UniProtKB/TrEMBL annotation:
Name under which the protein is recorded: MFS transporter, CP family, cyanate transporter
Keyword field: Membrane, Transmembrane, Transmembrane helix
The keyword Transmembrane helix appears for this protein: yes
PROSITE patterns assigned: MFS (PS50850)
Gene3D superfamilies on file: MFS general substrate transporter like domains
GO cellular component: plasma membrane
Sample GO molecular function, one term: transmembrane transporter activity
Xref: Pfam families: MFS_1
Membrane topology: Multi-pass membrane protein
InterPro entries: MFS (IPR011701), MFS_Cyanate_Porter (IPR052524), MFS_dom (IPR020846), MFS_trans_sf (IPR036259)
Source species, domain of life: Bacteria
Length: 391
């Protein structure tokens, strides 16, 4: 399809897709207590449900470039919307924890593939507006992270927890409609992705690149902390004496900070020679936030939450660097798969390790030592990850 409004249609598709890549994660954790009254949720279930998002996002990073060898980006993103809708919709009405986990796998795998497929779509259809569309992509991704925990408990009060979860299945269904229309009309990309390169020579080249590994590690350790906070921040706050409504609001706040900064960081990263000063400052904020939450949580819980939110805002920055540091659309697809694939596999260990430490060890310091150590490593690798020039 060649028309004046084709770019606008693709932008709408990117907006809808990006928004739907997180609600299935952050819209669930505030409802776990309510779910537990209807479905028996064991400690094993809680550990697995926290580990699944980064684990499946990581696996998706390695699967998606292979899918590009056989299918178009438009076909893949339509399939992603279907997987998310079916997974989130059906899991909301089942009574078995095992089936709930299985359907979560379907939805989260779709979200993971969507994480990887959107950047090369941006590069293909808007090669001269990468920073702007990356801002749109990252901003809507963060918006889809922020809204669900804020409204999950109020929605459950009106619709019960199942109805609260079904809202996000409905949002994903809108994505099916939008991308079905785009897939039928087949707008012509301005920069084509070569299937013979994606996942092939480009991926082999990245494996040998220290900067690619550094960017993967920086992204992975950011997500490591993201998913720990997404899963455990409400629990940490309620254990410190705060009520569930306040804890849910703080989870929304910790996701709101990357949302706000996500609209600024892509453009700022494009103008700066290196983004390492930003990462260094954010690492400091993350460390101070953790220390405050650990030692004096009651003193300033909102401040600690804001600092944690700033600290995890290196994730939208990392997504931007994937597109800015890529030489072409195919290089962007390969780098996106490599960075997010390895990074999310690294991140999958975070909720599992943290869950084990806070549930089986009497003292809290080992859990906080792990997250503070991860922050120190991220600070160290950021200088190489953010260096100017193509990877």
């Amino acid at each position: 399809m060649k028309s004046a409004w084709a770019p606008a249609l693709i932008v709408i598709g990117i907006v809808v897709a990006a928004f739907n890549l997180r609600p299935g994660v952050t819209g669930l954790s505030p409802l776990l207590d309510a779910m537990g009254s209807d479905i028996h949720l064991s400690a094993v279930f809680l550990a697995i449900i926290g580990m699944l998002p980064p684990l499946l996002y990581g696996l998706s990073g390695f699967i998606t470039p292979r899918l590009y060898n056989r299918f178009s980006g438009l076909t893949i993103i339509l399939a992603v919307m279907i997987m998310i809708t079916v997974g989130l919709g059906v899991r909301a009405v089942v009574d078995s924890p095992a089936i709930f986990l299985g359907l979560s796998v379907l939805a989260l795998l779709g979200m993971g593939i969507g994480n990887v497929v959107v950047p090369p779509i941006v590069k293909s259809y808007f090669p001269d507006r990468v920073a702007l569309l990356s801002t749109v992509h990252v901003g809507l991704l963060q918006l889809g992270t922020f809204i669900p925990p804020l409204v999950a408990v109020p929605l459950a009060g009106r619709l019960e927890w199942r109805g609260s979860l079904l809202v996000w299945a409905g949002a994903a269904a809108v994505g099916i409609v939008v991308w079905a229309v785009i897939a039928v009309l087949k707008p012509v990309p301005r920069a084509r992705v070569s299937a013979t390169v994606v996942g092939g020579s480009e991926l082999r080249r990245l494996i040998k690149s220290r900067r690619a590994w550094a960017l993967m590690t920086m992204t992975g350790l950011t997500s490591f902390n993201n998913f720990i906070l997404f899963t455990w921040l409400p629990t940490l706050l309620t254990r410190s004496g705060f009520d569930a409504v306040f804890a849910g609001a703080m989870l929304a706040l910790v996701t709101a900070i990357p949302l706000v900064l996500g609209f600024v960081l892509p453009l700022l990263a494009q103008k700066m020679r290196t983004a390492s000063p930003i990462v260094a400052a954010f690492c400091l904020c993350l460390a101070v936030g953790y220390i405050g939450l650990w030692l004096i949580p009651e003193a300033a819980p909102v401040l600690w939450t804001v600092l944690l939110g700033i600290g995890i805002s290196t994730f939208p920055l990392a997504l931007t660097l994937i597109t800015l540091r890529s030489r072409s659309a195919e290089a962007s697809a390969a780098l996106s798969g490599f960075v997010q694939g390895g990074g999310y596999l690294m991140a999958a260990t975070g909720p599992l390790i943290f869950a084990f430490l806070i549930q089986s060890v009497d003292a809290m310091w080992p859990a906080y030592a792990v997250v503070l150590a991860s922050t120190a490593v991220k600070f160290t690798v950021s200088f190489s990850a953010c260096r100017p020039g193509s990877i």
